[in-house]
Write a structure and sequence with these properties.
Blueprint lengths: L3 H4 L3 H11 L19 H12 L10 H20 L1 H6 L2 H12 L9 H18 L8 H14 L6 E4 L6 H8 L3 E4 L4 H17 L1 H22 L11 E8 L1 E3 L8 E3 L5 E4 L4 E9 L2 E7 L9 E2 L2 E3 L6 E2 L1 H10 L8 E9 L2 E8 L2 H20 L36 H17 L2 H22 L4 E5 L5 E5 L20 E3 L5 E3 L5 H6 L32
Parallel strand pairs: 1-2
Antiparallel strand pairs: 3-12, 4-5, 6-7, 7-8, 9-10, 10-11, 12-13, 14-15, 16-17
Length: about 550
């Protein structure tokens, strides 16, 4: 049985929607995390739907699908024709077709090749319009797509498997059109991205976003307090946002030995009205840099890996450059500071200044602080990652040629200090005591909102310990969009050390053993359940706790 994608596909329209999608940020999964070569959701949605649906004009297409698809498309065309806002979501070139179909519906009773080709054209045009970002959460388009998939698979939902899921575009779109999805990846970052997109967001919705924002703000505040001394403001109030460094080698020219910075170009910013560049100033085999606001009259020191000394003109070949850097693990910690990029209050744009001794003193302070932390660290793993990098050439890794063999070699001491601080603060946020505190405060906030807004009364249930548990049995939503904390399933309550109940959204095995009081099922709104959330896809994935 041939599929639609084997017959035709509205490539031009799909490509236009995919191109437009690149500029969309709000609500797009690409804003969750950077990922290599993200597949456009528009293209994935179109290809999956065209792959799942049979081609109606083919002889072996099931009659049942032809009949149901005809009815579904006729209903879609009629609804679109009746509502101008829905018609406006369709491509300009497709609107006349939907208007004509609404006036003269497809007829399955007429067994002719013309009608089958007309139905096939209608399915392809629907796929083209559904690939529009604005249609991806429109109820009419979602329901139509899911009805078509259900018509093609009347017995069981189709399973779309993506063994290299990456950013999760394919499994997400499979769920959107009503199929089930299997997603896997070797990269743990990809696994986390898929779990967030396919499981956590549909299940917890805004509540998850609020929790992440709150924890992120905590980490930001604590990190700023701890690291401010290593990233101070300038004396004039400017805020440094970047430090530009260059690794160095010793010139191997006869009698020279100057420290040569490795630079391909001296440009800092190259715009029509804003030009910033570096100027190398050579003084007795010492090289320092000045920031100029014009086109540089000098060239960089590196061409094809070979380094030319500005003092004597000798060119050190690339193999000798690599040998020197290998001995210093890439030379990150003895690099020279070229310039500092800053921003200024009430002034737009970036500004560039020359490096000062104060900058070097702060870097030295950061190096000493990192050494002290490594010395006093007592964790199971090393404070600075000392695991070996992937084999040379893996994912484009070629830094091994310059002596960087471990993950920690990729960063300067100040970068490592910042990264290890952030890692520690993130881990502190996952400690049981902190989770206990956060859950408790969120539950109290939610309970107050529900008691205030729900129309049904609070039902009190007593257990053998005479502890009262207040459970909102209403399928209520708070006035500000708050959602009931409980989700569909058997929810348990766990008594805290302070003799107060704490509602758990899931049932960890160790809780199930100790809790005796079992609370009746509470049906929450569909947008936090695994059942057709509004504007999202149905999630039915059994996942392993990773």
């Amino acid at each position: 049985m041939k599929r639609l994608i084997e017959i035709d596909l509205p490539i031009r329209q799909i490509s236009n929607h995919s191109r437009r999608e690149k500029s969309i940020r709000h609500g797009h999964i690409s804003t969750l995390h950077i990922w290599w070569a993200r597949r456009p959701l528009a293209a994935c949605r179109a290809v999956i739907l065209a792959t799942l649906l049979p081609a109606p004009a083919e002889k072996d297409c099931p009659k049942l699908f032809q009949e149901k698809a005809t009815e579904i498309i006729n209903n879609f065309a009629k609804t679109v024709d009746d509502k101008l806002d829905l018609l406006g979501l369709c491509s300009q070139e497709n609107r006349e077709f939907w208007k004509a179909t609404a006036k003269k519906p497809l007829s399955f009773s007429v067994y002719s090749a013309v009608e089958y080709f007309r139905l096939q054209q209608a399915l392809l045009l629907f796929i083209a319009d559904f690939s529009n970002w604005d249609c991806s959460t429109a109820p009419l388009f979602l329901e139509t797509a899911r009805q078509l998939v259900s018509a093609a698979y009347p017995d069981n939902k189709p399973l779309v498997a993506d063994p290299f899921a990456g950013g999760g575009s394919i499994p997400l779109e499979a769920l959107r059109v009503g199929a089930e999805a299997f997603a896997s990846d070797l990269n743990p970052v990809a696994v986390l991205l898929n779990k967030v997109v396919l499981e956590y967001i549909p299940k917890y919705g805004q509540k998850l976003a609020d929790a992440v924002k709150k924890e992120g703000e905590r980490i930001k505040i604590e990190a700023e307090k701890e690291l401010a001394q290593f990233y101070p403001k300038d004396e004039d109030g400017s805020m440094p946002i970047a430090y530009l460094w260059a690794r160095t080698i010793q010139c191997e020219g006869p009698g020279c030995g100057a420290t040569v910075p490795l630079l391909r170009s001296l440009w800092l910013a190259k715009k029509d009205k804003r030009k910033f560049a570096l100027e190398m100033i050579v003084e007795n085999k010492n090289i320092r840099f000045a920031v100029i606001e014009k086109t540089p009259h000098q060239n960089g020191t590196v061409v094809r890996g070979n380094a030319t000394c500005p003092c004597c003109g000798y060119t050190t070949p690339v193999n000798k450059v690599r040998e020197q850097l290998k001995k210093r693990k890439g030379g990150a910690d003895d690099a020279i500071l070229l310039a500092v990029v800053t921003t200024r209050t009430n002034q737009q744009g970036r500004f560039y200044r020359e490096a000062t001794q104060r900058d070097y003193d702060i870097v030295k302070k950061a190096q000493n602080e990192l050494k002290e932390r490594i010395k006093n660290y007592k964790g199971d793993l090393s404070l600075v990652p000392d695991e070996p990098l992937p084999a040379q050439g893996t994912l484009g890794f070629r830094v091994q040629l310059y002596g960087m063999l471990e993950w920690g070699d990729l960063f300067t001491s100040r970068q490592l200090l910042s990264l290890t601080t952030l890692c520690r603060l993130v881990r502190e946020g996952t400690q049981p005591s902190r989770l206990h505190e956060t859950t408790k405060s969120q539950d109290n906030h939610n309970k107050n909102n529900y008691q205030k807004n729900a129309k049904t009364k609070i039902k009190k249930i007593k257990n053998t310990g005479d502890i009262e548990y207040e459970i909102n049995t209403a399928d209520a939503t708070g006035g500000n969009g708050d959602k009931p904390l409980a989700i569909e399933g058997d929810n348990h309550l766990k008594q805290s050390s302070h003799n107060k109940p704490i509602c758990q959204e899931y049932d960890p095995p160790n809780y199930q053993k100790n809790v005796k009081t079992k609370i009746k099922k509470i049906k929450a709104p569909a947008d936090i359940l695994d059942e057709k959330p509004t504007g999202t896809s149905t999630v039915r994935i059994n996942s392993v706790n990773s």
